[in-house]
Amino acid sequence: GEISNDITELKEDFSDEITEYQRFEYPYAVSTKLGMKFGVSSLISDTDGTQYIYESKANIGTSYHKVMQYIDYAVSTVEGVEDAFREFVKEGTMTEEEVAQVDPSLIIMCLKQDFIRKAYEAELKLRRHREEKFIMYVPANSVSEKEEFSTEDKILVQGIVDLFIEGDDEKILVDFKYSDLTDSLLVERYTRQLKLYKMALEGKLGQKVDKIMLYSFKTGNTMIIE
User: pLDDT tens-digit profile of 201-226?
Assistant: First the structure.
C-alpha cells in the first residue's frame, strides 16, 4: 500500500509489567483507516482497569529480559549467574546498573524450569531462537478490544518473541514477564498477545507452534496458555 506523507510518531506511556514496550520500534502512519504501525504490547486492553506506567519497573523488566537473552542455560547456581553478570558488564552486553536490578536467585528459579532444559537441548542442536523479531499485517479487530480497533482494516504489528523452543517432540513459544500481577491476571491480560505471537512465529518460521507458555519471574510459575 501507499505510505501516508503525513507521518506522525505516536508517544505513549507504557505499563510497568509490559517491558517489551521499550524494545519495540514505535508507530508511524501507514495506509489503513487506522493509519498505524503498532508494537503488539501497546494493543493490550487494561482488563483490570489499572494503568501501570512506572518507568523504573519497565527498566527492571528489560534487564531481566536481557539476562535471559544472553545467559548460558547450563548455569545452575547463583554464583554462576553472578559470574555471568560480571562477564556481561565486561563485554558491554549489559551495564552495571542493569545487572544490579536483577535478582540472581530469580534467574536460577527460571533456569530450573523444564522448558529451559528443553531450550538448552534444542540449542545444542543449533536451534537457537531467542528474541525472535516479527512483523505482520492483521485485521485490527483481531488484536484489541479497544473501540478504535473495531474494524476489519489491516494494521501492521510488530513484536519480539522472547523464546521459541524448536524441540524434537514439540515446538514451544515462551514469554517472560516481570510483573506484580497474579498468575491468573497475567494469563487474562496476555492471552490475546501471545496468540498473535504464535500466529506471527508460525508464519515467519513455517513451523507449527504446539504450546504457548508464560513465565512470571515474580512468582516463579509457568502458565500454559494453550
Answer: 888 888 899 999 999 999 999 999 98
